[in-house]
Amino acid sequence: KTFTESADPSHGDIIQLRATIRHATKLVILGFGFYDQNIELLWPQPVPERPNPGSFYATCYGISDADLEIIKAQMIELTGMSGNHVHMRGGVTCVQLFQEYRKGLRM
After folding, report:
1. By three-state DSSP, how is residue 95 classified?
2. Tens of pLDDT along 51-63?
3. Is the pLDDT of residue 77 over 60?
4. Beta-sheet strand order (sheet of 26-29)
5. What is the pTM of this model?
6. In the chain, what percentage of residues exceed pLDDT 90?
7. Cβ-contact 31, 94 below 8 angstroms
8. What is the distance between the alpha carbons of residues 14 and 105, in angstroms, rounded to a whole number?
9. Are 97 and 30 in contact, with CB atoms under 8 Å apart?
10. Whole-angstrom Cα distance, residue 94 to residue 99?
């Protein structure tokens, strides 16, 4: 598939992925970049109600502290999770994220 084909929000894979994200009790995002196009693809507007509070963890390696604040506020709004359940840290690699949040990430 081309990127354009796989980025169609009406495509069945995207619809299924959005439903999976909405119902996830723990959501871990690695190497995502938080580009607007990626965010819009995974979190539709308006934001559907979340069936459970859940927890959100993400690497933000290479993202400035100023942008991180904006992205975290955006993720709180889009995921419907409270701020104390959204864990995002700049300068943290994938391995470091799992080491730092190992207890919170246990299933």
Report:
1. helix
2. 677 899 999 999 9
3. yes
4. 26-29, 55-60, 86-90
5. 0.82
6. 40
7. yes
8. 25
9. yes
10. 9
Structure tokens at 58: 């993400």
User: Tokens 């965010």 label which residue?
Assistant: 39
- Coarse DSSP helix, strand, coil percentages of the chain, rounded to the nearest 5 percent: 50, 15, 35
Cα separation, 28 vs 98, whole angstroms: 10
Asked whether 88 and 60 are in contact (CB, 8 A), the reply is: yes
With contact defined as beta carbons under 8 Å apart, do 79 and 56 qualify?
Answer: yes
Q: Which two tokens stand for residue 104?
A: 């919170």
Name the token pair of 17: 């992925």
Mean pLDDT of 14-28: 88
Contact status, residue 56 vs residue 30, Cβ threshold 8 Å: no
Q: How distant is the alpha carbon of residue 17 from its chain centre? A: 12
